[in-house]
TrEMBL record:
It is an enzyme of class 2 (transferase). GO terms for molecular function: ATP binding; protein histidine kinase activity. The keyword RNA-binding does not apply. The lineage of its organism: Archaea, Methanobacteriati, Methanobacteriota, Stenosarchaea group, Halobacteria. Its EC number is 2.7.13.3. This is histidine kinase. It catalyses: ATP + protein L-histidine = ADP + protein N-phospho-L-histidine. Residues 1-77 form the Histidine kinase domain. Keywords: ATP-binding, Kinase, Nucleotide-binding, Transferase. InterPro entries: 2C_sensor_his_kinase, HATPase_C_sf, HATPase_dom, His_kinase_dom. The keyword rRNA processing does not apply. It comes from Natrinema pallidum DSM 3751.
Amino acid sequence: MQQANELTLTVADDGPGIPPEERELLEGDREITQLRHASGLGLWLVNWVVTQAGGRLTFHDNEPRGTVVTLAIPRADAESVRSASDEPATGD
């Protein structure tokens, strides 16, 4: 369920789907070497980036076939955006 203070993006496909045991790996902090499908690395990386931003990914079956993935990240308030844009850029 979408909250007013978050941005959501939902993507659905009609492929073979993601097995429940791999969904658990994607949603957890386990080693990525446990994933069996090549596409799982991309989803694991997206999940890592989203959780670092304070968000979450959720997975549901897309009947009759496939997966629905919802990405939810917190919205930044205007003051946070202004404050971040005032900070000097740093580089190596």
